[in-house]
Amino acid sequence: MLAGYSPFAGDNVEDTVNVCALVVEGHFEFPEGGEPSNFDGMSRDFVRRLLVKDPLRRLGCGRGGVGDAWAHPWLAGYNPDLVQRRILQAPWVPPLQGAMDLSHFEVFDEEETEHTTMTYDGPDGPDLAWAAF
């Protein structure tokens, strides 16, 4: 969300699987570009702590639970109770022309989309796309 796109998406299924494998192994990079304020030291620290491979050391997985994550300085000013109750005000609400206004979404051309068929081999068979995990 900080970059405006999924950090786990590649150009195709194989690239996406490779990106996910690197993240699982603990290798990740912050994207270049975007709003500079989105990638300040505090936000990078928060994300790095959430992606620690060892759950015993991962932010939000210790004795303090999710409270440890909420206590991180990057989330200062956010009230977890308002978030949980879903009453936190959105930072930006797009102006709409009506209930079906889609003008703020990208145009999706299905004909230009690469279609990949994936199969599931069942619980006892390997799912080849995720075999690296």
Automatic annotation (TrEMBL):
InterPro entries: AGC-kinase_C, Kinase-like_dom_sf. Keywords: ATP-binding, Kinase, Nucleotide-binding, Serine/threonine-protein kinase, Transferase. It comes from the Eukaryota. PROSITE patterns: AGC_KINASE_CTER. Gene3D superfamilies: Phosphorylase Kinase, domain 1, Transferase(Phosphotransferase) domain 1. One of its GO terms (molecular function) is cAMP-dependent protein kinase activity. Residues 76-133 form the AGC-kinase C-terminal domain. SUPFAM superfamilies: Protein kinase-like (PK-like). The keyword Kinase applies. The keyword Nucleotide-binding applies. One of its GO terms (cellular component) is cAMP-dependent protein kinase complex. PANTHER family: CAMP-DEPENDENT PROTEIN KINASE CATALYTIC SUBUNIT PRKX, CYCLIC NUCLEOTIDE-DEPENDENT PROTEIN KINASE. This is AGC-kinase C-terminal domain-containing protein. It comes from Phaeomonas parva. The lineage of its organism: Eukaryota, Sar, Stramenopiles, Ochrophyta, Pinguiophyceae.
